[in-house]
Amino acid sequence: MDYIHILRKQLPIEVQKNLEYYENKGEYDAPEYQDLLFKSLYRKHLCRLDPWPSDVQHGFALMNNQVYNTMQGPNEFVITGNFKDWNRWEDLAHIHTPCLVIGARYDTMNPNDLIEMARRMPNAQSHICENGSHLAM
User: Fold this and answer.
1) Is residue 137 a contact partner of residue 102, using CB atoms and an 8 Å limit?
2) Which residue from 27, 73, 130, 135 has the least number of CB within 10 angstroms?
3) How deeply is 67 buried, as exposed, middle or buried, from its count of CB atoms within 10 A (0-12, 13-18, 19+)?
4) Taking the CB of residue 27, how many other CB atoms lie within 10 A of it?
5) How confident is the model at residue 75 (pLDDT cuts 50, 70, 90)?
6) How much is the pLDDT for 94?
7) Torsions phi, psi for 20 (to 5 deg)
8) CA-to-CA dists, residue 86 to 27, 34, 62, 91, 111, angstroms
9) What span, in angstroms and rounded, lies between the C-alpha atoms of 109 and 18?
């Protein structure tokens, strides 16, 4: 949550104000709000390709929003779901399976946190894709 707020503060002040306007009204599905998210967050931090690959578009079109909202909340900026207070940092030391933690410089997750995740697991490595975003794969 801390990192996504850092990304939010990097947006132009007018975009921040417009996002807050819809969030204060709880109008997360408003087309104007969705357009702001897509242009200011998703294009830079979810998938940096333009246009998005058809598989990404297809995946978002078929996404189960009920599950996403239960776990995350309305979007990456408004975290109200189960993940809000979820913290598993101390459990990472118990994961002994070899792991590769992949993230990206423009991810919605803090790249430093991704590196730290791998550091805390006994058999893990991390890789940060320098030009990638959340969907670096």
Assistant:
1) yes
2) 130
3) exposed
4) 14
5) confident
6) 98
7) -60, -40
8) 25, 26, 26, 12, 18
9) 23
Task: List, for residues 99-130, the tens digit of each pLDDT value.
Answer: 999 999 999 999 999 999 999 999 999 999 99
CA atoms within 13 A on the CB side of 14: 0
- 104's enclosing H/E stretch is strand 99-104
Instruction: State the DSSP string of 74-91.
Output: SSSSS--SGGGG---GGG
Residue ranges of alpha helices (H) inside the chain are 2-9, 13-25, 31-37, 54-61, 65-71, 111-120
Residue appearing with tokens 């779901």: 81
